[in-house]
């Protein structure tokens, strides 16, 4: 797999830049989880503890609404069959992180029991960086 991050497709009206990316390790784990669980989605809340980690669910298992923002849409496929993965964030958390670019990475350890990667002995983690030339 390439060492290049996978940027999400832009989903926010009026924007022309990606807000979230996946590391190659995250793509690899998501492909494995897709085989086990089918279509997937992320939700990033603003809670403490595990709530501050990106949670990966089977698509549609976490119900989103007006209090959530769709930050990006990934296609983790190898080019044969589309494998879309949405990345959602609570609107309240987005208000704090709106000036950052997020990268979903994978590290050893056990995350929340609600996130599908927990049994793998790995957990998803957000790495953030200030966006350059952020629109004022």
Automatic annotation (TrEMBL):
Matching entries from InterPro entries are given as: DUF779
- Extract the Pfam families matched here: DUF779 (PF05610)
Q: Which domain of life is it from?
A: Bacteria
Quote the protein name from its UniProt record.
DUF779 domain-containing protein
